[in-house]
Specification:
With about 1050 residues, the chain is mostly helical. About 65% of the residues lie in helices and about 5% in strands. It comes from Glonium stellatum.
């Protein structure tokens, strides 16, 4: 969407703390107070500009969005146009806004195609409705009776047609969210035609009206299409390229943030948290509140940006691949780039989890509470060990991160996502590109950069032995000088303390070793992923793809997939304007698959013969009528009829027309959303937006003193400003859309009256109002429509934003179960060697990879929407008890952690598919084969976790309590199981093996999954409760509270104390 375009025009992926630090280091120390004040004053406008998130691209898109209504009202000033559209002139401007010309081209063309089809169908059905209504008038009116304007039978027929169409079209809208705009357009057409239908006495009148209405709609669409295609054209490929550029920039920012955090571990306590003073307590002292360290917060912030971009790219990529364009990279190249980006993102995401892992270490050892003296001494010792280890790896870690950053820069330059930096001129006026000064250094963009990156990556891999040797020395293990060159034959000595250390100390040391290997493995994996991307970029240059542009046409297969996907639920982010996002965070549309939607019928077996199949077909209708989509359509139809009934009664029909209540019906069509509920906050925001629109209409009219040319210019300016909300705050899209439509409606009507005269403007039964009366009346009409939509969202039972959020959270848990089951099968297939040839699309490994990537992207989309909504909960006015935001935040974070650690398990298991170790000897390959054989006999993953997540999903979705005595699966304890099978398999002798490091990643990740699952189960229990079948005995002999009741099923520790 265009909202994505502006958000990626000038991506700033660097953490704010890093940018501030770099900026502060560059400031001079000798500035005087005057220059400092000048700098401070000049920075305020720029600071405000940055807060608004505006850049040139965003402003241009805002200006583009305001052009269609301006053109529509401008051409209406021509006599021929005014004669053609008459009293429907302002409707052309409204429809041109709803055409949403700022959508990327592929998405716009698809949406516009369905807009036109829905309008044409609406016109055809409107003619049928008018004809049937006139037939009702004809059969209920005596031939000799004088013609009258109102006929009850005609009104009833129009009302029935209106209810049926609104019900049906909104049921379709709920079933297929991608049809949001076409169904809204259809609803607007039907509302106008059905409320004017009772006024016609001849079919010729109805045909003329339907024709003018159809022409008005199609003209608005034509203006919107022309602006979209020819004024600042924005293709879906452009959107994707900007997202890829922002993605790569965010990855560079993540590398620098990780570098700062890793370097901070050299001197700080990684298990502690800083504290900041907050409000004063009763004694006047400020209480301490824990806060995250700035380096850790910077990592978390940039990783949230990356996951958001990953989800957006997943949603926009299909449109970019289907688009006909003139460019350089084809659809297959875009798909490969997305795959390579994902290959870099997953290990970087895993590297960011070391912050969480250190916190878990502190929790395991009770270091996050008030420790005793012995525990505090151990903590200081461990912190000191980590400080020494991180100091020892400072140089190799910093070097490889810088090289990887250069690799990402090389990709940006080679694929022409950014322009190469300008060469600085030397003092003598010539170029400063001095070959001698440059020497043998290879820079990003040079031809030999890939070989340079590969060399640095291998040097880092070989250099990891320094940190491992230091760790061994600190633990009392002395390694031979050639230990890492010949681990199978080289000797090593363990001190007596090591041989006699208790199991708890052994586990603690093993965890420390695993975490060190965890960091080195992921850094090396990132460097290899960057290298793959660099080689891909260089390959495109070698093929000549980037030397010139060519016509890119999608193949027949993609066109067929596009047609098939039109009637399928597609993934869309919460800021996708094509699905009418609002201020709810639960409107992220995710296709969850048939397993989540289909249910077995416990009352009917599958049909076995033709008669049963016919009966099964008949049952489709009641199944549809009781579906959630049908319920939503019924709500909207009832809300619409609550207003439309005024137009169908004899005593109020004139009032309906005079006060233009049809716009209240249109507000119902726009504001009621099938993917989310309502809240008092959203209702209030829409009213505020409409009030602001009325004020803007006054400004547009009175600033140029009502002069037509000036009014058109100011309308364009204020509509430009109004589109800031849909573009930069997509959660408030409906608020911004209603505001823009309302202000255009008010100003457009006044310009229409000025052009065609008061008599012609009043010919449809609507009296003329000057703008100072029209604007408040329009405000009252729109607010009334919003109020009716608000009421029918809560009646007969509420569909609140909170219930929609709960449903979405249940879907996120279901996707987690799905993702875990895929990872489970992936790991088993890789250990057994059953993946097959990954080059073949039909191989098991390729199918698992496709499913894994698809579900992961869906989960990122869903979690991003959940996090966005959670941030807005604090602004809502609670009705009843307070919303349990803390529990929901805990569940969202646990789901995010589980998914991230699952992806790490799947990523690390890839090591088991290639037993060949570069530079290794036969003993290494032998150990690798033994290790794989033992891993086959040990269950690395468990189906119990899939069952647990599915159960939690069902409980959250339905609101039913959990079954009693539900416990999480036990930790895997892979190390203990492997050592029980082969004591030497995880000994120090093999710590340099690549499979050992991959095992360390899997061991840490699986343990963290269990830990998060325990927190998740507790949080869900707090939300939905747990069935309690315990038996209580109430004692009447003892009045003390402690003995007044006893539970039959009592914990053993409590029984032993009483005994």
């Amino acid at each position: 969407m265009a909202s994505r375009v502006n958000s990626n025009q000038s991506p700033d992926p660097m953490p704010s703390s890093a940018s501030k630090a770099s900026g502060s280091s560059e400031e001079g120390q000798g500035q005087n107070a005057k220059s400092a004040d000048v700098a401070k004053s000049t920075s305020k406008p720029r600071e405000l500009w940055n807060k608004l998130g505006l850049d040139l691209g965003t402003v241009l898109i805002m200006m583009k969005a305001a052009i269609p209504p301006t053109i529509a009202l401008s051409i209406y000033q021509a006599n021929s146009v005014a004669d053609t559209y008459s009293t429907l002139g302002y409707l052309v401007a409204i429809i041109s806004i709803l055409g949403f010309c700022i959508m990327p081209r592929a998405k716009f063309i698809q949406t516009m195609l369905f807009n036109v089809i829905s309008t044409c169908i609406g016109a055809a059905v409107a003619l049928l409705m008018i004809w049937s209504a006139l037939q009702a008038r004809k059969h209920t009116t005596a031939a000799s009776a004088p013609p009258v304007r109102y006929n009850s039978s005609q009104s009833v027929v129009c009302a029935i047609w209106l209810f049926f169409q609104i019900y049906l079209v909104n049921s379709i809208r709920a079933k297929f969210p991608q049809f949001a705009f076409p169904t809204i357009i259809y609803a607007i057409f039907v509302n106008v035609a059905a409320t004017y239908g009772p006024q016609f006495t001849e079919m010729s009148q109805g045909i003329a009206f339907a024709k003018r209405l159809l022409e008005a709609f199609l003209t608005g669409f034509g203006i919107s299409t022309g602006v979209s295609l020819f004024i600042i054209p924005m293709t879906s490929r452009t959107v994707v390229f900007k997202e890829i550029t922002g993605y790569l920039g965010a990855l560079r920012g993540a590398l620098q943030a990780h570098k700062a955090y890793i370097q901070s571990l050299e001197t700080t306590d990684m298990f502690g948290r800083a504290y900041e003073s907050t409000e004063k307590d009763t004694k006047g002292k400020k209480s301490a509140k824990p806060k995250g360290r700035p380096e850790a917060e910077a990592v978390k912030k940039i990783m949230a940006v990356i996951t958001e971009l990953h989800g957006k790219l997943h949603g926009d990529l299909p449109f970019a691949k289907r688009e006909i364009a003139f460019g350089k990279l084809g659809p297959d190249d875009l798909a490969e780039i997305a795959k390579l980006l994902r290959g870099i993102m997953i290990p970087i995401l895993g590297l960011s989890s070391i912050i969480d892992i250190f916190g878990r270490f502190a929790e395991i050892n009770n270091w996050n509470t008030e420790p005793d003296s012995e525990s505090e001494e151990l903590r200081k010792k461990v912190v000191h060990e980590w400080n020494e280890i991180m100091t020892a790896v400072h140089e190799p870690f910093s070097k490889i991160i810088e090289v990887m950053d250069q690799g990402l820069e090389h990709i940006l330059l080679t694929l022409q996502f950014v322009k190469p930096p300008k060469k600085k001129a030397s003092s003598s006026g010539g170029q400063s590109d001095d070959v001698e000064a440059k020497g043998d250094a290879v820079r990003p963009g040079d031809k030999g950069f890939a070989d340079y990156l590969e060399k640095q990556s291998e040097e880092f891999y070989q250099g990891k032995e320094m940190a491992l040797r230091l760790w061994c020395e600190r633990k009392g293990i002395k390694l031979a000088p050639d230990f890492f060159q010949h681990p199978a034959t080289a000797s090593y000595d363990e001190s007596i303390e090591v041989k006699q250390e208790p199991p708890r100390a052994h586990q603690r040391n093993q965890r420390q070793l695993y975490l060190l290997l965890f960091m080195e493995f992921l850094l090396y994996s990132i460097s290899r992923a960057v290298l793959d991307f660099v080689r891909f970029a260089d390959k495109q240059v070698a093929k000549g793809k980037l030397s010139k542009s060519r016509l890119i046409v999608p193949g027949n297969r993609r066109l067929k997939k596009w047609i098939a996907s039109t009637f399928k639920v597609e993934d869309a982010t919460h800021d996708d304007s094509a699905t009418i996002a609002d201020i709810d965070g639960s409107n992220t549309i995710i296709a969850l698959g048939s397993a989540y939607q289909s249910r077995k019928d416990p009352e009917h077996l599958p049909p076995q013969n033709a008669w049963q199949r016919v009966g099964d077909f008949i049952r489709v209708l009641p199944r549809f009528l009781r579906s959630p989509e049908s319920a939503f359509g019924f709500r909207v139809a009832c809300a619409t009829m609550s207003i439309a009934i005024v137009a169908y009664l004899r005593d109020t029909a004139k009032f309906f027309v005079e006060q233009r209540l049809v716009w209240a019906m249109i507000m119902v069509a726009i504001s009621m959303n099938p993917t989310a509920g309502q809240s008092a906050f959203s209702f209030l925001l829409r009213i505020v937006g409409t009030t602001i629109a009325m004020i803007l209409a006054f400004l547009v009219w009175y600033i140029p003193d009502g002069k037509t040319a000036g009014v058109l210019v100011f309308l364009w300016v204020f509509v430009t400003i109004g589109f800031y909300v849909p573009l930069k705050q997509p959660r408030f899209l409906i608020v911004g859309l209603i505001s823009v439509v309302t202000s255009t409606l008010i100003v457009g009507y006044e310009l229409e009256v000025r052009k065609i005269g008061k008599a012609a403007a009043s010919s449809n039964g609507q009296p003329f109002y000057p703008i100072y009366l029209l604007a408040p009346y329009r405000l009252a009409t729109v607010v009334g429509g919003l109020a009716v939509a608000f009421i029918w969202t809560f009646f007969p039972f509420p569909i609140s934003e909170h219930s929609a959020l709960r449903q979405t959270l249940g879907a996120a848990l279901y996707l987690s179960a799905n993702f875990y089951s895929i990872v489970h099968e992936t790991v088993r297939a890789r250990i057994r060697g059953d993946e097959g040839d990954m080059e073949l699309k039909t191989s098991p490994g390729r199918k698992l990879e496709k499913a894994r990537n698809k579900v992961y992207a869906k989960q990122m989309l869903l979690l991003d929407g959940l996090r966005t909504y959670s941030a807005f909960v604090k602004w809502e006015v609670p009705i009843g008890g307070r919303f349990p935001k803390e529990q929901y935040d805990t569940i969202i974070q646990c789901v995010l952690n589980i998914v991230n650690y699952m992806s790490l398990v799947g990523y690390a298991s890839h090591t088991f598919t290639d037993p060949v170790v570069s530079g290794g000897d036969e003993s290494q390959t032998e150990w690798f084969n033994d290790f794989r054989r033992l891993m086959t006999s040990v269950n690395i993953t468990s189906h119990e976790i899939t069952s647990m997540l599915s159960l939690l999903s069902a409980s959250i979705t339905s609101g039913q309590p959990l079954p009693p005595y539900l416990t999480t699966p036990q930790p895997y304890q892979l190390s203990r199981k492997l050592e029980a099978l082969d004591h030497d398999i995880l000994s120090v002798r093999h710590i340099a093996e690549p499979g050992y490091a991959a095992f360390a990643v899997m061991q840490i990740s699986t343990r963290c999954i269990i830990g998060d699952l325990e927190k998740l189960l507790l949080a869900v229990k707090n939300l939905v409760g747990e069935l309690d079948f315990s038996f209580h005995i109430i004692s009447t002999q003892d009045s003390s509270e402690s003995s007044s009741k006893e539970t039959l099923l009592m914990p053993s520790t409590q029984r032993s104390k009483q005994d």
